[in-house]
Specification:
The structure holds two protein chains of two kinds. Chain A is mainly alpha-helical. Chain A has one domain. Chain A is built from eleven helices and two strands; from the N terminus they run H-H-H-H-E-E-H-H-H-H-H-H-H. Chain A has a two-stranded antiparallel ribbon with strand order 1-2. A seven-stranded mixed β-sheet of chain B has the order 7-6-8-9-10-11-12, with helices on both faces. Chain B has a five-stranded parallel β-sheet with strand order 2-1-3-4-5, with helices on both faces. Classes of the chains: A mainly alpha, B alpha/beta.
Chain lengths: ~290, ~400
């Protein structure tokens, strides 16, 4: 039972990681921009949920759609006004832009919220369900459910809606999409907005697990990169698989080897995948 | 518009200048007095942002209040504040910057890695430094000539902390037989682990440590670490935490229904921080930390506590405040006795420090040949109703210990 509990804890933590990584995957999959400000955007989502809790006493789970909607608009505006100008620029210039953006976002959060850690105090943040000896952490169950629903919604959007299909067309053949008259700039804006909305939703849920402070971002950006590279950049299912793999590998290595070395196993997995399947576990060969 | 007369070199001017020069050159005492009137520029190097921000800002409040209180008492100090963003590399460059900008003495750094960096810079530049908080024993084992530490080393903390555990078990009448040790794996955590391993048998611990679990203090999640600790089925949960990791750990213990007899730290931060109480609420209660603490029987401590409550009514009053206050006091006292801001005079005065009226529990502040204040004592502090209160030793205790602690679900 102990080992099952460890695997379960790893799966639930992995689902939270996956939820966080979706946005990165969506943005790269279509716009081909590597979002180095990903962690910062998640921390903004956490601060937004924190502000709604502090001022309106809104539970972060209830605040999640609102945070996602606000971040969607912010992401759309950011892409149309700034990032779109760099879409055709060489990758190093795009990297610099996103790193600069990350620094600006961190500094802004420092100015607005200060360096201290903030959190929400909710009774259920300490709850867990016990089913036949298996312990289910309530918050992680919510987060895992959020990850699965998020993955399903994104998949449905890209498969069944006209806008989703148009975005996929842009991702598959940008020139072709322009030739048939698709408004590529607008679709890119929507995609970036969607990616940032995903990150914002993840931030709302993460606030239940982690205290938020402006310097939290870098670790999460790195983790998201590991997850999406493992699963395959641009693949929603890949992000889910990558998150679960990282969660379970950290849990098992932490228990059986040494907890302080658990991050090493995530990086080990990453190196292994880069060597054996560079396109990621669910990625398509370029 | 004002006009300036061109200055000419007259016989009267030459005589006047020669007379003033003669008096000044012939009277070193006059010069000394003039220098003594100079305020002491103290470079305060703290982690005011980043991982240790909460503690760094608490230290800063202690320093700010110390400057205010001591200047009103006739000392003359001026603070130059710098933030090293919880990074030892930045601590090094900030220490150099403070010295370049005219600091006569540096104080810092809360974190042992950064304190080592500050000490190296001070040694190279010949500027004295006072460690407010930093427990790594190596800091005072490097042969530094300009370093003085008022904070106990980790072996001192652990020896006193482990002895205080024996007192706790005797006072409560309950002695655990086994313990699991969860510790942060940073500089401080490792030095504490080394000290516990080496000194545990010497102080005659009544329990056996059945498992030792190291973790990254910046970890996002401690669920596996807590699962592992729970699986050890130990009576006592011993911890060496740093900051928000203590919150993650307790939160997981509640979720996993892991209820040892007690949660005790032999001398580490985390469980008496304001953030700990605020986030965990009722679950923060009954954790025990054996640590150097403020002495409510000291007059200076009472004054500091009252002024602190006035200046920062919403902030916690804890040991970071007390030790940071004392660091400024030590510098101001040395400056007053030296009557100068020159490094050599300050170092000489610091070596002769003997401050009996202090804030923290322990004997008079004096430094040995390594620059360490060796007369340090420890109190057992237990969280009760959202506040850290002294439970041992009995002469300074404000209430009796509760051990074993009540279960998570038995708290209201």
């Amino acid at each position: 039972m102990l080992y099952l509990n460890i695997i379960l804890a790893g799966l639930l933590t992995g689902a939270v990681y996956a939820l966080m990584a979706f946005g990165l995957s969506v943005i790269y999959g279509v716009i081909r921009i590597v979002n180095f400000a990903h962690g910062e955007m998640m921390v903004i989502g956490m601060f937004a949920a924190f502000a709604l809790y502090r001022w309106l006493h809104l539970d972060p789970i209830a605040a999640m759609p609102l945070v996602a909607a606000v971040l969607f608009l912010a992401g759309y505006a950011l892409q149309r006004s700034l990032i779109n100008r760099f879409v055709t620029q060489p990758e190093p210039i795009q990297f610099l832009l996103m790193i600069a953006l990350a620094m600006v976002l961190t500094s802004t959060m420092l100015i607005v919220f200060g360096p201290n850690a903030h959190n929400v105090q909710l009774d259920y943040a300490f709850d867990s369900y016990e089913v036949g000896g298996l312990l289910f952490d309530k918050v992680r169950v919510f987060a895992a459910a959020g990850a699965l629903v998020g993955a399903a919604l994104l998949w449905g959007f890209f498969q069944f809606t006209r806008t989703g299909k148009a975005i996929r067309a842009c991702a598959d053949n940008n020139l072709g999409a322009q030739v048939v008259g698709l408004d590529v700039a607008r679709l890119y804006g929507i995609t970036f907005g969607l990616g940032v909305a995903c990150v914002g939703a993840a931030g709302s849920l993460m606030l239940l697990l982690v205290d938020v402070q402006p310097y939290l971002a870098t670790d999460y950006t790195l983790l998201a990169f590991i997850i999406v590279i493992l699963g395959g950049l641009g693949r929603i299912g890949g992000a889910l698989l990558g998150g679960l793999l990282v969660g379970v590998s950290e849990a098992l290595s932490g228990f059986f080897i040494d907890p302080s070395m658990k991050s090493m196993f995530s990086y080990g997995l990453l190196i292994l995948v880069l060597l054996l399947r560079p396109q990621g576990l669910l990625g398509r060969r370029a | 518009m004002a006009t300036h007369k061109p200055q000419t070199l007259s016989r009267r001017r030459v005589l006047h200048a020669a007379a003033v020069g003669g008096i000044v050159l012939g009277s070193p005492a006059v010069l000394r007095l003039a220098r003594a009137a100079e305020p002491l520029k103290i470079g305060v190097l703290l982690p005011r942002s980043g991982f240790f921000a909460t503690a760094g800002q608490a230290c800063q409040r202690g320093c700010d209040l110390a400057a205010q209180i001591l200047n009103a008492q006739g000392y003359s100090v001026q603070l130059m504040n710098a933030d090293f963003e919880s990074s030892a590399d930045i601590a090094r460059t900030q220490a150099e910057k403070l010295i370049r900008e005219g600091a006569n003495i540096l104080i810092g750094c809360f974190e042992s890695g950064a304190t080592n960096a500050m000490a190296q810079v001070c040694e190279q530049r010949g500027i004295p430094c006072i460690v407010n908080i930093g427990a790594d024993p190596k800091i005072t084992e490097q042969g530094y000539k300009f370093l003085f530490r008022n904070f106990p080393t980790s072996p001192m903390l652990v020896t006193n902390g482990l002895k205080a555990m024996g007192d706790l078990f005797a006072a409560s009448g309950t002695t655990p037989k086994t313990a699991v040790l969860m510790h942060a794996n940073d500089t401080f955590g490792q030095s504490m682990l080394g000290a516990i391993t080496a000194l545990g048998p010497k102080v005659g611990l009544p329990f056996t440590i059945v498992d030792t679990i190291a973790y990254d203090p910046k970890a996002r999640d401690l669920s596996i670490e807590v699962t592992k600790a729970k699986a050890a089925h130990a009576d006592l949960h011993m911890v060496v935490t740093r900051s928000t990791d203590a919150i993650l750990m307790i939160r997981e213990m509640v979720k996993q229904k892991y209820e040892p007899m007690g949660i005790v730290s032999p001398g580490s931060p985390g469980m008496y921080d304001g953030q700990f109480f605020k986030t965990l609420g009722k679950y923060s209660d009954y954790c025990i930390t054996n640590i150097a603490w403020m002495n409510p029987k000291q007059e200076l401590e009472n004054m500091l506590a009252a002024e602190y409550a006035k200046a920062y009514p919403n902030e916690d009053y804890e040991l970071n405040i007390g030790f940071s206050f004392e660091a400024i006091l030590i510098a101001a006292d040395a400056h007053k006795r030296a009557g100068a801001t020159a490094s050599s005079a300050l170092v000489e005065a610091l070596r002769a420090t003997n401050i009996g009226k202090r804030v923290m529990i322990g004997g008079a502040i004096k430094f040995d040949e390594k620059g360490q204040n060796v007369d340090q004592a420890v109190a057992a502090v237990q969280n009760r109703d959202g506040k850290a209160v002294v439970i041992l030793p009995t002469d300074v205790a404000v209430t009796k210990p509760v051990f074993p602690m009540p279960g998570w679900q038995q708290r209201t």
